[in-house]
Amino acid sequence: MTTSILSKEEIKELVLKLNEIGAVKLGEFKLKSGIISPIYIDLRVTVSSPVLLASIASMMYKTVYAQSKPELVCGVPYTALPIATGMSIAHNIPMVVRRKEAKAYGTKQLIEGIFKEGDNVLVVEDLVTSGASVLETVRDLNSVGLTVTDVVVLLDRQQGAKQELEKRGLKLHSVFTMEELINTLVEAGKLTGPTLELVKNFLEANKNVVVPLPSSAPVRAPFVSFQERAKLATNPTANKLFQLMASKKTNLAVAVDLTVKQEILDLAEKIGSEICVLKTHVDIVQDYDQQFIKDLQAIAAKHNFLIFEDRKFADIGNTVKYQFENGVYEISKWADMVTIHGVAGPAIIDGFRESIKTTGAGLLLLAQMSSKGSMCVGEYTNQMVEMGKSNQDAVMGFICQERLSAMSDNFVLMTPGVQFNSAGDSMGQQYNTPEYVIKEKNTDVIIVGRGIYKSSNPKEEAIKYRTASWSAYESKQ
Ligand SMILES: O=c1ccn([C@@H]2O[C@H](COP(=O)(O)O)[C@@H](O)[C@H]2O)c(=O)[nH]1
Fold it and tell me: How far apart, in Å, are the Cα atoms of 367 and each of 115, 117, 215, 399, 415?
C-alpha cells in the first residue's frame, strides 16, 4: 500500500509515461546490494523529459507535504538531485546538497548550503530497495546537526526499506510501490507471461534486502596496497596476513563450518591453494582431537594459509585466559587469530596478552555483524574501533561490514556474510557480493562459508570467489 495521496489514474499516467521513455527495464540487472534483479527502474532518464521531471517533483511534493513540512530538502546523490531541485524551485523550499566526495579533498563541506543546527530536512530519493543510500545521506545530514524525520521517494521497491527506515525513526512516503507499478503495467498489457512470473518470484524471494547502517562516515581514503599495509601493521599476524595476501594474490577466507574432522581436512586440501585464511569453529567438530589440529597445520604450511578460530570470546579477562589456553581445544597453541566481543569491556584483551606476546597471534574485534538486527551498531561499533586502536599490539583488525573512518591502515578488515547468489538464510544471515564488500564497503578480506563448502565443486567455487574479491581489491588502485 502506498502512502501517496494521488489518484489511481494519476499514478497510471505516470507509470505508463515512465515505461514509454525507457525507465522500466526488463532483463538481468545488478542492484547496489549486489542482488540480480529481473526488473530495473532507471529514473536517470527522466532528466531528458523536463515536463515529466517537473511533474514527478510536484507529485512527490504533494505526497509528503500533505503530512509533513520540513524546512529544507536534500536529494540523495545523484539521480534524485534534479528532483529535489525541482521541488525546491517550484515550492520555494531551500535545499542543501550532500557531497559524496567531501572527505577526499579535506576542506570541502560535507553538506553545502545555508542551514542551522536542528533544521529538519526532507530527504528526497528516486527509489528505495534496501534504504542503504538514504541512510548514508541521513547519516551525513545528522553529522552536521540536521534532523531528518521524513523521506520521500517516487518508487518503493518493497524490499525492506520501509521497515529499515521506520526502525530508525524515519517515515517513508512513496508516490507508488513496485506492486502498483507492476499491476499498472499488467493492466495495460505491457508485462505478461514468463517475464511477469520472473518479476513476481523475484520480489517474493527478496522482500528484505537489508544493508547494515554505517556507524560513522565510511572512508573514501586513498588506496594503500597490502604490501604497504604490511609495513604499517602493529600486530605480527596482521603483518603476516598482509604479506601473504600480497604474495599469494588472494583475499579470500573460507569458513569451514563442517562437523567431521576428515571432511574439514579434505576441504582444506582442496581449496588451500586459493585462500589466505581458513576459519574454524572447533567446538562443532564432533571427533575433535589434537591430531586433527596437527594435520590442519600441516596443510596450512603446505598451502600457505593462516588458521582463524572464530571463538567469539566474550567473558572477563580471567575467564577468557582459561578458555583461550586450556580445556580440550587449547586454542592459544594453534590459532593464528581469534575473534572477541567487547561487551565485557577492554580488559578482556588482558586475558590474551601474555599468551599472544609469545606466539604473535592476532585478535579480531567484532565491530559489526552480518546478521539481521545485530546489536553491534552505532556507538558500540565506535567503541570497538577505539578498543582496537588502544590495543594495537594485540588487535590485528576487525570483523566488520564496512570500513569506517576511524579504522586505520594497520588493521585488517574481514567481512563475513558473503555469497554471490543469495540475500540471506532463514536464520538471520545476510549476504552481500564480494565486489560490493571489497569495492563499495572498502574492506580487505571476504569470509565465505556455505557459498563454498556446500557447493558441489568447492575448488571451482573458491576460484570464483578468489577471482572476484581479488579483482575488486585491484580495481581500487
Ligand atoms: O558477523 C558475523 C561474524 C561471523 N560470522 C561467521 O562467518 C561464517 C559465515 O558463514 P556463511 O555460511 O557464509 O553464512 C560463519 O562461520 C559465521 O559464524 C558471520 O557469519 N557473521
Answer: 33, 30, 10, 6, 10
* DSSP at 439: I
Query: How many angstroms does the Cα of residue 256 sit away from the middle of ligand 1?
Result: 10
Q: Whose CA is nearest to atom 13 of ligand 1?
A: 449
Known binding-site residue numbers for substrate: 257, 279, 370, 429, 449-450
Nearest CA to ligand 1 atom 6: 416
Q: Could you give the ipTM of this predicted complex?
A: 0.99
Atom of ligand 1 nearest to the CA of 374: 1
CATH 3.40.50.2020 fits 8-206, yes or no: yes
Ligand 1 geometric centre to CA of 449 (Å): 7
How many angstroms separate the alpha carbon of residue 371 from the centre of ligand 1?
Answer: 8
Instruction: For the full predicted model, state whether its pTM sits above 0.95.
Output: no
Helix, strand, coil: what percent of the chain each, to 5?
45, 20, 35
Helices and strands in the chain, H and E counts: 18, 16
Query: Which DSSP string corresponds to 288-349?
Result: --HHHHHHHHHHHHHHT-EEEEEEEE-S-HHHHHHHHHSTTT-GGGT-SEEEE--TT-GGGG
Q: Which of 210, 257, 283 to mutate to test the pocket of ligand 1 (most atoms within 8 A of CB)?
A: 257
Q: Which CATH number fits domain 226-475: 3.40.50.150, 3.90.330.10, 2.40.50.140, 3.20.20.70?
A: 3.20.20.70
Instruction: Report the nearest-CA residue for atom 18 of ligand 1.
Output: 310
Show me where the domains of the chain are located.
8-206, 226-475
Digitized pLDDT (tens) for each residue of the chain, 477 residues in all: 444 578 889 999 999 999 999 999 998 887 766 678 899 999 999 999 999 999 999 999 999 988 888 899 999 999 999 999 999 999 999 999 998 754 434 445 788 999 998 899 999 999 998 888 898 898 888 878 888 999 999 999 998 889 888 877 889 999 999 999 999 999 999 999 889 998 888 888 777 665 554 444 444 567 999 999 999 999 999 999 999 999 999 999 999 999 999 999 999 999 999 999 999 999 999 999 999 999 999 999 999 999 999 999 999 999 999 999 999 999 999 999 999 999 999 999 999 999 999 999 999 999 999 998 899 988 899 899 999 999 999 999 999 999 987 899 999 999 999 999 887 888 999 999 999 999 989 999 999 999 999 999 999 999 999 999 999 999 999
